[in-house]
Amino acid sequence: MLSGRRGTVAVLLAILLGVVAGCGSGSGSGSSSDASGSGEFVFGASLPLTGVYGQYGTITKAGLTVGVDRVNKAGGIDGRQVRLVIKDDASQPDQTLRAVRELVESDRVDFVMPGYISSQELAALPYVTSKKLFTITGASTPALGDPAKYPYQFILGDLSSKRVPAMVSAASRLTRATGTTKVGIIVSDTPPQVALGDGLQTALPAAGMEVVGYEKVAAAATDLTPQLAKLRDAGAGIVLFDNLARGAISTIMTGVQTLGWNADVLVGPGMVIGDLKAEVPPAVAAQFHAVNYRFATAVGGTVAPATASYIDELAQHGEVTSPTLSATLTDLVFEVKWAYEKAGPKADGPALAAALENVGAQEYPADYRLVYTNPGFTPQDHTTNNADYSQFWGLIGAETPDRGIYPGEALELVSR
Questions:
Q1: What pairing do the DSSP bridges indicate for beta strands 297-299 and 82-88?
Q2: Cα–Cα distance measured from residue 232 to residue 184, given in angstroms and rounded to the nearest whole number
Q3: 396 closest CA partner among 266, 283, 307, 278
Q4: Assigned CATH class of 161-300+392-410
Q5: pLDDT tops 50 at residue 24
Q6: Mind listing the pLDDT tens digit for each residue in 311-362?
Q7: Which pTM does this prediction carry?
Q8: Helices and strands (H, E) in the chain, number of each type
Q9: Domain ranges across the chain
Q10: Which of 319, 314, 323 is nearest to 293 (CA)?
């Protein structure tokens, strides 16, 4: 009888231990691989694979996939092969939060990227912050990398604040070419675009230009002729525009054509995707200009060998439309690897964040980076604000790209 009771107790204890062993602490804890029993490092991401920002989901998915392939060939993360799990947030903030919760609580990922588009990621940041999860995203809104608000979150992307001097430099070129100094601004009412518009409103006058109008529109707007007409009537000769929604370039250039307005239009680098010549009506093609990333600009017809090799890898996962944005996500996977290598496989979110905060003061491996030589994170700034942007930009027209590479010229920043 006693031995039977002991047997029953032993069985119950075994079951209890099994249940406890199956309960991990989720993303950033290093425990999900133990839960799966596979020894894998599970990398989760919420991306806009469909919806108004769907083109960016495809671009970022390809970049993450190549990053995981490269990391696995380099030995994985702490010797563990990386498996990528992606959820579609359909370009909707509430779906981003749902996707991130599923990745953390159901898929039990080791790391989660809580969205790509700033307005979507904002919905998930309170959740991941409350759980003290270490996160990195490719967003461009500086506020999302404020350690006072989000102590475990980092941004690997060109910031809206860093796009301002590039846009001003390009606008200065147009001013010299056309003789006009009156500029209008149109941006979508999304966080990074508003941050860019606000920055331009201050920086353009400092560079000798007059801002005669500043319009904010819905991201999904399909007719901008009312806003363009207001800027035309105010005397603008140059329009600076930024909106990441699908078809936004066609929308604004069609509006310019409809008005019969001979104004130059300059768009931001995040909008440069696909065949620009096909998006811009031929009648206004000469009026279209775009700040582009130097990584994807063939200056003098030359493409760097490392860029060409990367594009070969990227092309295995579909059409290459924005190699710089994809490459940034590839770099992001290596940043995750770097943080875990420095903090240790069982490090929690705060320890991983502390490790990455020191990257700006350390030598960053050359084979870990494609776009940024060193992201320059510090304890006070979790963005690429301290990265080197001096050779970052190019200037292009309404061109058809060759595997995401556009013919153009280098854009040097004007000094003020």
A1: unpaired
A2: 8
A3: 266
A4: alpha beta
A5: no
A6: 999 999 999 999 999 999 999 999 999 999 999 878 999 999 999 999 988 9
A7: 0.85
A8: 13, 13
A9: 32-159+309-386, 161-300+392-410
A10: 323
